[in-house]
Design brief:
The chain is an alpha+beta fold and about 80 residues long. It has one domain. The protein is built from 2 helices and 4 strands. It has helices at about 15-30, 50-60; strands at about 5-10, 35-40, 65, 70-75. Strand 1 (about 5-10), helix 1 (about 15-30) and strand 2 (about 35-40) form a beta-alpha-beta unit. The longest helix has 15 residues, at about 15-30. It is globular and about 40 Å long. The mean pLDDT is about 90.
Length: about 80
C-alpha cells in the first residue's frame, strides 16, 4: 500500500493570508496528499473556522482531528 504524506507549517494567521491560502490550494491540488500533518493551526479570522477544516476542504479529505496547534487530515478516519 502506498500513500502520499504532506507535512506543513501553516504559519498560523500571519499575513498575507489570502495569497497564502491560494498558493496552498494550488499546491494541494497538485500534490493530492492522502494524509496531511499540520503545525501552527489556528482559527481563520474571517470565517472563524479551524484552518484544518479549510485545508481538508481544499484537498477533499473528509477527516481531521485537532483544532488549534497541531492537526491531522486524512482520507480515512483517524483514531486519537
Amino acid at each position: 500500500m502506498t500513500f502520499r504524506l504532506l507535512t506543513l507549517n501553516l504559519w498560523n494567521i500571519s499575513e498575507p493570508l489570502e495569497p497564502r491560502y491560494r498558493a496552498l490550494a494550488a499546491g494541494l491540488k497538485k500534490l493530492r496528499p492522502d494524509l496531511v500533518c499540520l503545525q501552527e493551526v489556528y482559527r481563520d479570522p474571517e470565517s472563524g473556522r479551524s484552518q484544518a477544516a479549510l485545508v481538508a476542504e481544499m484537498c477533499g479529505l473528509n477527516h481531521h482531528v485537532g483544532e488549534d496547534g497541531l492537526s491531522i487530515i486524512s482520507s480515512q478516519p483517524v483514531v486519537r
